[in-house]
Amino acid sequence: MKHIRTPLLAIIAVFVLAGCDTTREATMVNQPEIEIVQDGAADGARRITLRNGRGMEVELMELGATVTRVVVPDRDGRPTDVVLGFDTIPEYPEKSQYFGCTVGRVGNRIGNGFFELDGTGYELARNNGENHLHGGVVGFDKRRWSAEAMVTGKGPGVRFTMTSPDGDEGYPGRLDAEVVYILTEAGELVVEMGAVCDAPTPVNIVHHTYWNLGGHGSGSVLDETLQINASHYTPVDAGFIPTGEIAAVEGTALDFRQPRTIGRDIGAFPENGDDPGGYDHNLCLDGDPGVMREVARLSDPDTGIVMIIETDQPGIQFYTGNFLNGMVGKGGVVYDKFGGLCLETQAYPDSINRRGEPGWPDVVMRPGENYEHRMVHRFTTE
Predict the structure, then answer these.
(1) Which residues, at least 6 apart from 234, have a Cβ–Cβ distance to it below 8 Å?
(2) What rounded mean pLDDT belongs to the chain?
(3) What is the spatial distance between Cα 285 and Cα 288, in angstroms, rounded to a whole number?
(4) How are beta strands 230-233 and 109-110 bridged, if at all?
């Protein structure tokens, strides 16, 4: 597994706040700063804040290797938190919308919670009807990861590590996973996911932040403008499992190759029974998997904040927060349907059951191999 290890060429100071048992560690090199806060909730899981010299802040926590806050200056310099989340750590697993977390071993869905590998069938935990979703009942999002703060040549960062044992949620073999977050001085949030295993197993670790570039409490994202460099998508059945077809986006409401508002054609996916409607689709990204390239651009008309995503993955799940149901989030803000969106770079859903089919990625990892998944969120204004 690729580990990013940079010596901490910094002065480390530890402060005990008067009248409270919270411990803070601050690591500073000029402007970049790392702050660690011990939280008594969730088995003592810690929160980590990264800061750069551009006025950006990224707050993370050990539970789920989760992003809980991303503060970006808007076009007028006002700090804007563009990530949906909760005030307390226990709310994340309790309200379970996968806010900001790392999901795995396999993000997205596996049909019927079953796959075959090397002649053996594996029954997985079924937590989405008859299907397996985001790693199961107790996936990576509900585990406490171990955090190691670091300062890199690009800016402050944190490395999260966790071990998933053999048989975890039905998966074969032990998996040692890591997620590295770096906040660069260029205004980028870099996310690097990696893993090694001791037996063949499927792996598709996914980052699941909900974004609203108008601010997490600003309401609907339907007026935001999105571009996705994807000429194809994977149609799904009623259970959101891919049919196996790889279809062209041309002439459909999924054609975001030219920038357009998210709400323009969202009516093409209306509410239907248990399906709340809206976008929840895997798009097949143009370009070569394994090569970093720009794949998406999102912008907000009111704040002027722009987020550009680069990745080395073959697909991206575009989800418009269809199941947000009026839950109370950070600062008492109510998150309603379409109150945030996810742009999850990934291998295609249910790829483990499409092995060998033309156009489908192979998500099987074997001993001696390194799983790598990299994405960059670059922030600017217009």
Answers:
(1) 242, 243, 245, 246, 247, 281, 282, 284, 315, 348, 349
(2) 91
(3) 8
(4) unpaired
Q: Which residues contact 123 (CB under 8 A, 6 or more apart)?
A: 113, 114, 170
Domain range summary for the chain, segments of one domain joined by +:
11-381
The amino acid present at 43, given as its one-letter code, is D
User: Residue 266 in contact with residue 279, Cβ under 8 Å?
Assistant: yes
The continuous run of DSSP H or E covering 91 comes out as helix 91-95
What is the reported pLDDT for 273?
86
CB atoms within 10 A of CB 266: 17
pLDDT at 26: 38
Which residue in 201, 120, 204 sits closest to 373, CA to CA?
Answer: 204
Q: How many CB atoms lie within 10 A of CB 11?
A: 9
Catalytic positions, written as ranges: 208, 344
Average pLDDT over residues 316-320: 99
The CATH number of domain 11-381, selected from 1.25.60.10, 2.70.98.10, 2.10.109.10, 1.10.1040.10: 2.70.98.10
Q: Residue written as tokens 């295609």?
A: 348
- Tens of pLDDT, residue by residue over 22-76, are 333 433 333 456 777 766 555 668 999 999 999 999 999 999 999 999 999 999 9
**What is residue 6's three-state secondary structure?**
coil
Sign of CA dihedral 17, 72, 256, 270: positive
The pTM score is 0.90
Distance from C-alpha of 73 to C-alpha of 78, rounded to nearest angstrom? 5
Look at residue 128 and tell me whether its pLDDT is greater than 50.
yes
In degrees rounded to 5, what are phi and psi of residue 330? -55, 135
Instruction: State the greatest distance between any 2 C-alpha atoms of the chain, in Å, as a whole number.
Output: 62
What is the predicted pLDDT for the residue at 45? 85
Query: Reduced to 3 states, what is the DSSP secondary structure of residue 164?
Result: strand
Over the range 174-202, which residues count as b (16 or more CB within 10 Å of their CB) and which as e?
bbebbbbbbbbbebbbbbbbbbbbeeebb
CB-based contact 195:178 (threshold 8 Å): yes
pLDDT tens column, 257-285: 999 999 999 999 999 988 999 999 999 99
